[in-house]
Please model this.
Amino acid sequence: MNDEKFFPATVMPDKDWWHVLWPDPDAVLSAIGIKAGMDVVDLCCGDGHFTLPLCSLVQSGQVWAVDLDAKLLDEARQACARHPNFHAILGDARELPVQIDAPVDFVFIANAFHGVPEKTALSSVVHEVLKPEGRFAVINWYPLPREETMVLGQPRGPDTELRMDPEDVRSVVEPAGFRHKEVVDVGPYHYAAILARADVARS
Model:
């Protein structure tokens, strides 16, 4: 998702350095616990860099790719055209419960959560669409100064002040009805904070 009206500072980056930064998206998806048979939402999917390997990884499972940007979503649709388990949704991530018709096992969001203005509210939406014990994975840049996160000789990623450490993610997601599971290192500058839906009343 890259509409500045909704999630600031989440514009889809140029493909050249994006592919250098994420040369093996399959490995990232496996590392965070996505497996064959899972039904998964790729929230704010962009051009489908993670969506395509996700369709292959889950095999018989279903994949919903959600984004506000019609052009980027069309790129994801074209990339995944040979996968019958792919479903494109053009719309606001905060309307997810009316966009998919059954609970899912996993919701995945990469490089957009830092720009969400109401992070606990979005997490509540994710909670609503997950199966009991379903997982929510948030991939974020480590809170390093932007000038230290270099790709192809240039500083990349969101402004330093927008970056979140894993505890920041935990503090805004857990109140929506989640419990922290683990933090996984998924790149030179990124981590995945993985939280599970807690099947208890939310505070």
Summary: The longest strand covers residues 130-141. The chain has one domain: 15-197. Strands lie at 40-43, 63-67, 86-90, 104-110, 130-141, 150-151, 154-155, 178-185, 190-197.
